[in-house]
Amino acid sequence: MARQDRALRTRRAIFEGAATVFDERGYESTTISEILERAEVTRGAFYFHFPSKEDLARHVLAAAVTTDGVPENRLKLQQLVDTLLLLAHRMPHEPMLRAALRMSVDLESQRLFGTRWPDWTSLLADLLREACERGEIYQHVDEDETARLLVCSWTGVRVVCEGLPEEYDLAQEVAKLLHLILPAIAVPLVLAKLEVSAERAAELYAGLSLAGTEPAGARRDDEEPSERPHPNG
Length: 233
Hints:
This protein is mostly helical. It has two domains: 62 residues, Homeodomain-like (Arc Repressor Mutant, subunit A), CATH 1.10.10; 136 residues, Tetracycline Repressor, domain 2 (Orthogonal Bundle). The protein is 67% helix and 0% strand. It is built from twelve helices and no strands. α1 packs across α4. The radius of gyration is 19 Å and the shape is elongated. This is ScbR family autoregulator-binding transcription factor. Keywords: DNA-binding, Transcription, Transcription regulation.
């Protein structure tokens, strides 16, 4: 069990170290040597867990599609709101999420890996369909189209705010965006019940931190030797 714990810690260190460098330098400019230095692991340990830098990047992108910390809610529209707010609050705190976004908007990375925008769109569309079945949104709302526009708008807020000279609270900006969009899709009775604020995002994040959730791409139960030769040296 001790070796499994060590393996999990090593994998997570590699995962988080790579995400930090991807976020700072971009995928193309990042070398495996930089990842090893940041993660403080050996080359053998790296190749035990990930066959290549490309494979590691795909894990980072996959792990960014997450609803960790979002509680089940009888109002599916609230669950959708919580997903977008919590992601906004997590973004400044978690290099993995920032790295995934940077790779997703970089044209060269898109060519290599594609993006996870379709996954996010599908996730939000499913919540909107549930909301429709429960009478929470107007019948004329197109769930797939609305989900796509939400993903586009959320991403645009993040990218634009990052490039502005002033500092912005991303969760607060996303809350403003939702206040503009929700009246167009939510029936009045449900709209009045929704909690949409940066404060709610912070509360959700506090719960996530207490739970100690780690990125999905960092989880693996394999054992790992301290050194393992690799054919590429």
